[in-house]
Amino acid sequence: MTIPNFISIMRLLLVPLIIYTMLIGFYSWALVLFLIAGISDAVDGYIARKFNQGSELGTYLDPLADKVLLVSSFIVLTYLGHLPLWLTILVVSRDVLIIAGVLLAFIMEKPVEMQPIMISKVNTAAQIIIVLADLVLLAMPAFIPMFISDNLHSTLIIFGSIAVACFTCISTIAYTIEWVRHISES
After folding, report:
1. 65-74, 78-87, 134-143: lowest mean pLDDT where?
2. Can you list the pairs that 61-66 forms with residues at least 24 positions away whose Cβ atoms lie under 8 Å?
């Protein structure tokens, strides 16, 4: 087992704790744990590249850990009323479509190489930012006057949701085009 794979597994194991801290309203702890998970993602990628510890398992494990963390966070923050339901449905549906496309290509004996495209990276960054910003605002009510916090939170959710939705739609279309092209060529 490589160090990056071990770090990805630890990130996966952090997810239930992050979700639990959100559900019980310990947003400061959820924020700290989410940041640790995010930093661990950067660290495992750095170690994999710098020390040539990339592996086939890692090409699946790292994005799986990222998706489990993000999708779980979106679902819980929506359940708690902090993110709009339509946005979470859009985010989860995109991921389900991508997984279905990969599985279908595998069943058709035309496996797809797992390579994220640039818009997907931008989409993931936008998703991380909206979850992180939401957690920061939820964790800091003692430091920000309530009327500013509520207005800032509402504004963030409106504009952040629109940005995430746009990136999610563009990413879905781009992956669909790539998938159709791959299936047609094979």
Report:
1. 134-143
2. 61/5, 61/8, 61/9, 61/12, 62/4, 62/8, 63/114, 63/116, 64/8, 64/12, 65/8, 65/9, 65/11, 65/12, 65/15, 65/37, 65/41, 66/11, 66/41, 66/124
